[in-house]
Amino acid sequence: MENKTAYEYIPAFYAGRCIFITGGTGFMGKVLIEKILRSCPDVANIFVLIRPKKELSINDRLKKMLDNKLFDLLRSTQPSAFDKIIPISGNLAADNLGLLPSDREMLIEKVSIIFHNGANVRFDGSLKDMILNNTRGTLNTCILAENMKQLVVLLYVSTVFTQCDKPVVEEILYPSEIDWKKTIKIAESCDEHLLKILTAKYMKNVPNTYLLSKILAEKVIGDYSTSLPCVIARPSIVVSTWNDPVEGWLDNFNGPIGLMVGAGKGLIRVIRTDPSVIPDNVPVDMVIKVVIVMAWKRGIKTEINTIDIYNCTSNQIKNLTTKGSLDVSMKITEEIPLDNILWKPRTILTTSSFVYYILVLLLHVIPATILDGMMKLFGARSIVLRLYRKVYVMNTVASHFSLNKWTFHNTKWNTAVDNLSADNWKDFGFDYKDLDVHEYYRKAVKGCKFYLLNENVDDLTAAKRHYKRMEWLDKIIKTLFVVFTLWILYKYIATY
Predict the structure, then answer these.
(1) Using CA atoms, how far apart are residues 469 and 37, in angstroms rounded to an integer?
(2) What is the pTM of this model?
(3) Which of 6, 99, 292, 431 is the most buried (most CB within 10 A)?
(4) 67: confidence class by pLDDT, cuts 50, 70, 90
(5) Helix H or strand E segment including 270
(6) For residue 3, what pLDDT is reported?
(7) Backbone phi and psi for residue 157, each to the nearest 5 degrees, phi listed first
(8) What SS3 class is residue 154?
(9) CB contact at 8 A, 229 and 298
């Protein structure tokens, strides 16, 4: 590829350049760093903003991150690539990103590409925390970018659900009635108690503080696009990898994967959701490939005062309905069972809040109380009810998304992939129209077992044996329940 220019060949564009990444230790951030190092091997350096913790320095956190199995392929093929990663101490929520003056000067002098991926993603976070992390953090990233002497692109990772008040979401920048400058000042000056009172006024049709902060962050990027070469990437629900660098990789229980694991373990018996909704799930490796392509396409443009916006969604991927996804997942967990399941997996889906509350009481709370009591008798920690409380909170905060339907247009996403040259397709293309959804779920279940639960995926003998025991126990309990009910009815009728 010696003769390929940066305008033709994506790795040539990244060659010799320094990149600054926020949110690099998160789910998408890890995949982004791994993919750039592996597929753009001539990149100069990747500066990663890392928040130090009491028990871990930034170097410790970086080492812990790189020990992840996601980096095994890179470790075996390009071990020296890790030397290009330079941790930078900072904090999105702090003034000026919490950067040391020396680090700030280094970034200003060397960086030409920014991937602003960092954010606090808690749906139930306080308005103050969300605005300072996600909105002011984006503002401070833009201020830093304005001072960078070699900057060619600033890519901001948003979410397509910033526009969830609209049934159809286009790849455009939407106006916001809320002034981001005033909101940041209020978050900086008001105490938590006062902000809790103001939260309801700010929220209006926005379902949570996370989305509000991301809506305002998009507006920040839009305003700064008059002086900066900006791109906004709006992913939908980002899930485990399809195949790059490995199949089914993920590093957290957030979102649909957590529900799938809970259901596969026989723990989650009821979910409040619309069974007919088609969830907009998209594999993280596909998102990251297009993010890298987006930055390249904006970086080689000469126009100024423009902003590129891409909806990174599964609009043309053959997704299943929520019920279809659950049915497929349950069938796969029967073939590839999770270890030590608590009961035979079976989950009820309902849109009714009343039915949901009743079933939560009958199928979650009462059994959890009994199990916790038994565990106390044997001297073990009672954790089941606490676990169900987390499940309930997770389902509640996500219910807006599991009960509603949207259409996300992603023409630019599709065009960016379809128009890749053969050379670029090799590392950055993917057949989104022909993705086998059933095979994806199979990979996701195996990925959950291996990467999240540290379970054996090669020898399933013990897991299948235990699954059969739980099937028989389920049948026995149901039979006894029916017999007991009939006996009660017989006694009642015999009395009269």
Answers:
(1) 47
(2) 0.93
(3) 292
(4) very high
(5) strand 270-272
(6) 66
(7) -90, 110
(8) strand
(9) yes
